[in-house]
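Okay, any thoughts on this one?
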Amino acid sequence: MKGLERKAIPAVGPAPPGSLAEALAAVPDPRRPYGWRPECPPLPLAGLLQLVVAAILCGAKSLNAIAQWGRERVEDDPAFLVELGLPPGRSPCVATLHRVFKVLEVEAFERAVGAWLARTGVAPDEALALDGKTLRGVHGAAVPGVHLVGAHAHRAGAILAQVRSAGQGRELAAAERLLKQVPLSGGRVTGDALLTQRGLSRQVVGGGGEYLLPVAGNQPMLRDGIAAAFSPLDREQP
């Protein structure tokens, strides 16, 4: 915009060590505002993202719901969101959430949250399930659906990381990339028969983990070899 210079967003103090705020501080702030009033500076990104995480955990499933959750907390107590890193009496509106999410580095956000969960909420020997899912698109071809492969911690019930795949049935390459983002040492990896491949198994073992993968009809020679190597449980003993 002519005649206006971009104005730096005010810095915030250090977050408590090991906190979600400290993890989110690593997410690059994409905002480059042209100006703002001193009495109403832009909301700190880490605080805004912490509010989003809290609202989603409370059941919010849309930008409107997230904004409403924050607004209702402030109405109940203007200082309620201070511990999430927001100024007293303030919470993001729908327009602010839309602008931030539109330019946010999503992968950096997911890495920050996933790494924090792995450090604080997942046991070292936690089993990880690799699985694919397809997110439905909206507005036809304007926002197409996307297929993801995620690493789900069995006991913690949390997704530690997820990556895009080329589509359903083509998840192996995405799974191999995914394993580079999650802790493997001392844990176990599970998945479906599509992921029962030498390369992926070696990657898990190389990272200090174990795997438990099924063998189905897509690999008949391997399945027959396993059947020949292990006696049926119902075979009569001599």
In short: The beta strands are 127-135, 146-153, 158-164, 188-190, 210-212. The longest strand covers residues 127-135. The domain at 123-229 is CATH 3.30.420.10 (Nucleotidyltransferase; domain 5). The longest helix spans residues 106-120.
